[in-house]
Amino acid sequence: xxxxxxxxxxxxxxxxxxxxxxxxxxxxxxxxxxxxxxxxxxxxxxxxxxxxxxxxxxxxxxxxxxxxxxxxxxxxxxxxxxxxxxxxxxxxxxxxxxxxxxxxxxxxxxxxxxxxxxxxxxxxxxxxxxxxxxxxxxxxxxxxxxxxxxxxxxxxxxxxxxxxxxxxxxxxxxxxxxxxxxxxxxxxxxxxxxxxxxxxxxxxxxxxxxxxxxxxxxxxxxxxxxxxxxxxxxxxxxxxxxxxxxxxxxxxxxxxxxxxxxxxxxxxxxxxxxxxxxxxxxxxxxxxxxxxxxxxxxxxxxxxxxxxxxxxxxxxxxxxxxxxxxxxxxxxxxxxxxxxxxxxxxxxxxxxxxxxxxxxxxxxxxxxxxxxxxxxxxxxxxxxxxxxxxxxxxxxxxxxxxxxxxxxxxxxxxxxxxxxxxxxxxxxxx
Length: 430
Known about the structure:
Elements: H1 3-7, H2 10-41, H3 44-71, H4 74-98, H5 104-118, H6 121-132, H7 138-170, H8 172-194, H9 213-230, H10 232-248, H11 251-262, H12 267-289, H13 296-314, H14 320-348, H15 351-367, H16 369-401, H17 407-411, H18 419-423
Helix pairs in contact: 2-3, 2-7, 2-8, 3-5, 3-6, 3-9, 3-11, 3-15, 3-16, 4-5, 4-6, 4-8, 6-15, 7-8, 7-12, 7-14, 9-15, 10-15, 10-16, 11-16, 12-14, 13-14, 13-16
């Protein structure tokens, strides 16, 4: 199915438009947030703490968010997340109007509050896509979703690098306030489109009339974890995702320090390198989304290996042009790793488990980051950015290549829900 035909499906188009607008606002705000923490403190450890605050809710609430996505209307969950995020940012904008230079603890608190809300959005959205498009369009839908996830931040980087970058030179106060309010507006507009979706209740919801909501939530969580442990390929994906996220998590902290020490600390250079990364993701996402990749495990290994080796190459790239180039190449690897595996999971996982499986992967992806970012900030101060990039990149590539040791993972076939059960007896060589 072509992208044009896909967007002719009105419910999916509304979800796509809501995602695109919201992610444009996020791009305007996320990088600015870490940039302002660095400007206020000049301390990589404080940037790390800010990163921890944004990821800690995913560690604490991701499993429960998956349970909610498997029991409640996914449309309502996404709508709640958008509206609550808009309210948080508008409130913070009012604070900035009266206190132009807020204490760092306020920045950290707002980042944590946004994550506390948005932890519920991701599993609901991923579980909703298969309900909005026909099965034969699922791979194309995931490809478009990931390309949009990359393209809108790229536009955001261009805007923030040019317009907000110029505004920062004139007034750092209005620079930060503008980014906050634009992000609040994006969440409000996203909510308009999410509200147009049809109800997205799960196909099957277990009867919970005889137990308390808290106990039922715990039961559902345990059922989701048992399901992932039982389905061998999903369990290997979980392990490899944990390793990958542990090694990649400190990257933005290193990024900010590299920009300050190597490139002069201008916001425009930070936006340039990040924009290069998203450009690579866009091109790769379009290419991967239109190809029939049959071995998602092999694609995952290849994509993460590309990313790891290019991060290692950044250690030797003091000129900003080379650093931006390697960011572009790194962006090529992400869709190759994620898109085929996302489609595989959506294919093999029953609808009433989809939210929990996505939330477990989100918990691993985001939940490991508080520890990794905290350790990364300390290690960065001890060994410097060059050595940090080298260690992160090589460790990431090595953890991905380890996936070849598991036969079921490397031979899993996209489009055949039973393929991994036929080649695995539940034991792993990993």
